[in-house]
């Protein structure tokens, strides 16, 4: 019971820290930072932390030769996803960006069914339609339209993250999660560095105490979220962890309202609820199928 409680606390903290990272990112953008710089700094902090965790847990850094292509391809799409999400928050309200992005579990399921050449079950199909109807409402298509560039970045983030998870699920199940995460982060660091060098876009913004706090808050919250996530997985399992992490968009929307002064219209809020509800229902359905199998 104690381990279960500790695991629940660890995963809730994971969701809260990821949400706080998004808020700090938005504050830093307002002081001149840009998404390219932030993702480079994120991976510069994250890679050594992953390496330390691997050493402390006695895991191996090694990948089999045949695992390298899939690992770094997954890393490319993961970086494209996380970078596009940061970019979407540059153009959109954080709350709206996270709702669009959080369609990725539904896209991942659809991709899995396509790869397996299986028709989705009734519940899965309903949840898929519900999620994208919710997204339609969240975008408030009939009302004031959000920034098109921001929406495209958020959709790219969702699709890219789905591709990364599909590659990992189909080709890299044998790789320990923390080892895989380290190599994904290395791929991200390389790509972010290449982007910064080729575009000469390194610009952390104002040299001020406030901006330093925001940048450190963004990258440290992201990094330490993974520590709590791995702890949660070890205590309550990956399935329960993934379910609880659905709190992330809820936390992000709440913090966006409280700290950034954002607001969603009633129709957008209904859309956000539909997206989150569809994801929770489909994950519960998948968990039940695994339990009965």
Key features?
293 residues, mainly alpha, 12 helices, 0% strand, globular
Please specify the SSE layout and strand pairing.
Elements lengths: L1 H28 L5 H23 L10 H24 L2 H8 L2 H13 L5 H17 L9 H24 L5 H23 L9 H28 L1 H7 L2 H14 L5 H27 L1
Helix pairs in contact: 1-9, 1-11, 2-3, 2-8, 2-9, 3-4, 3-7, 3-8, 4-7, 4-11, 5-6, 5-7, 6-12, 9-10
Your description of this structure?
With about 290 residues, this protein is mainly alpha-helical. It has a domain at about 1-35 and about 205-235 and about 255-260. Helix content is about 80%, strand content about 0%. It contains 12 helices and no strands. It has helices at about 1-30, 35-55, 70-90, 95-100, 105-115, 120-140, 150-170, 175-200, 210-235, 240-245, 245-260, 265-290. The longest helix is centred in the N-terminal third of the chain and has 28 residues, at about 1-30.
Assembly state here? single chain
- What would the principal axes of the Cα set say about the shape? globular
Overall structural class, as computed from helix and strand content, comes to mainly alpha
Order of helices and strands: HHHHHHHHHHHH
Low-pLDDT parts are: none
Largest sheet: none
Say how many strands there are.
Answer: 0
Average pLDDT, to the nearest integer? 89
Radius of gyration: 19 Å
* End-to-end C-alpha gap: 26 Å
Q: Work out the helicity level.
A: over 70%
Strand content: under 5%
DSSP summary: helix tally = 12
Summed up:
The protein has 293 residues and is mainly alpha-helical. Helix content is 81%, strand content 0%.
């Amino acid at each position: 019971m104690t381990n279960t409680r500790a695991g629940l606390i660890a995963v809730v903290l994971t969701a809260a820290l990821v949400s706080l990272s998004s808020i700090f990112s938005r504050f830093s953008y307002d002081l001149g930072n840009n998404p390219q710089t932030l993702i480079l700094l994120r991976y510069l902090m994250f890679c050594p932390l992953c390496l330390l965790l691997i050493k402390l847990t006695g895991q191996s850094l090694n990948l089999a030769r045949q695992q390298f292509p899939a690992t770094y391809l997954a890393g490319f799409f993961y970086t494209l996803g996380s970078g596009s999400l940061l970019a979407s928050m540059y153009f959109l309200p954080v709350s709206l960006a996270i709702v669009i992005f959080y369609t990725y579990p539904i896209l991942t399921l659809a991709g899995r069914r396509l790869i397996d050449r299986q028709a989705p079950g009734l519940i899965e199909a309903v949840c898929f339609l519900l999620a994208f109807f919710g997204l339609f409402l969240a975008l408030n298509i009939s009302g004031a339209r959000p920034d098109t560039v921001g929406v495209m970045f958020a959709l790219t983030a969702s699709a890219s993250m789905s591709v990364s998870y599909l590659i990992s699920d189909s080709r890299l199940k044998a790789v320990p999660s923390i080892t895989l995460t380290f190599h994904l982060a290395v791929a991200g660091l390389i790509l972010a560095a290449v982007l910064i060098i080729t575009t000469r876009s390194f610009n952390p913004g104002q040299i001020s105490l406030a901006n330093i706090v925001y940048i450190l808050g963004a990258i440290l919250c992201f990094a330490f979220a993974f520590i709590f996530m791995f702890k949660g997985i070890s205590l309550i399992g990956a399935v329960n962890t993934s379910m609880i992490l659905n709190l992330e968009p809820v936390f992000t929307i709440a913090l966006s309202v409280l700290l950034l002064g954002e607001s969603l219209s009633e129709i957008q809020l209904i859309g956000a609820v539909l997206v989150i509800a569809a994801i929770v229902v489909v994950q519960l359905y998948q968990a039940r199928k695994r339990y009965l199998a």
